[in-house]
Design a protein that fits this description.
Oligomer: single chain
Number of helices: 7
Number of strands: 3
Largest sheet: 3 strands, antiparallel
Shape: globular
Order of helices and strands: HHEEHHHHHE
Length: 215
């Protein structure tokens, strides 16, 4: 009889010890934490350079309209003559009559550029990134826009009727809006920024759609 009670007592003690050990093991496990939101990412030089890639984007060719069946003739009101885009105020420099700046484009606009040979296109593709990189570097403290200006000048001189030249004019105008002194430092005149010749078709040109610069 005593042997049976000793066995029961031993089993009870073993169960109690097992419960204590399991409970302590569970209490030692780390409590799962709710995932915290990552800290807000600060803009870096690389983010600025990624934003500036838009200057390397070629304007999209204008697609010819699809052929539509001729509608029945109906009386039409007299067409209203389209008005040319009005130049926006330019606080940093006065412009002669007829000069159009890239910033005057307020929405998608059709401009006309001269197509380039494969060789010239490759050379322009290699040169334009120097201008965009120089633009990013120039915005850093104590840095200047000399590299950008040099690359833009070469593009303007070598391919004045190309969309690359239009991009160069966009970049040069933008820095004059940062500070008045850049126009004098880099000889950025209204004539240098003028895009009026791109606004009308010329022999050999092709239409492309350009948009205002994204901020």
């Amino acid at each position: 009889m005593n042997t049976i009670w000793l066995k029961i007592a031993a089993v009870a003690v073993a169960v109690v010890i097992a419960i204590v050990v399991v409970g302590r093991f569970r209490s030692d496990k780390p409590t799962p934490q709710a995932p915290s939101e990552p800290p807000a990412k600060q803009k870096t030089f690389y983010d600025m350079a990624d934003r500036d890639k838009q200057f390397n984007e070629a304007p999209k060719p204008v697609e010819p309209p699809a052929a539509q069946p001729a509608p029945e003739p109906t009386p039409q009101p007299q067409p209203v003559q389209a008005q040319p885009p009005q130049p926006s105020p330019q606080p940093t420099m006065a412009r002669p009559p007829g000069v159009v700046f890239p910033s005057d484009l307020k929405g998608p606009t059709t401009l006309y550029f001269m197509p380039m040979s494969e060789e010239n296109d490759i050379q322009a593709q290699q040169l334009l990134p120097y201008a965009t990189a120089g633009r990013s570097i120039g915005r850093l403290p104590i840095m200047q826009y000399g590299l950008m200006n040099k690359a833009c000048l070469q593009i303007e001189e070598r391919w004045p009727d190309s969309w690359y030249c239009f991009r160069a004019k966009q970049m040069m105008e933008e820095i004059t809006q940062y500070s008045d002194r850049y126009a004098g430092t880099y000889k950025i005149t209204p004539q240098r920024l003028d895009i009026s010749r791109f606004m009308k078709p010329r022999r050999g040109t092709e239409p492309r759609t350009v948009e205002p610069m994204r901020r």
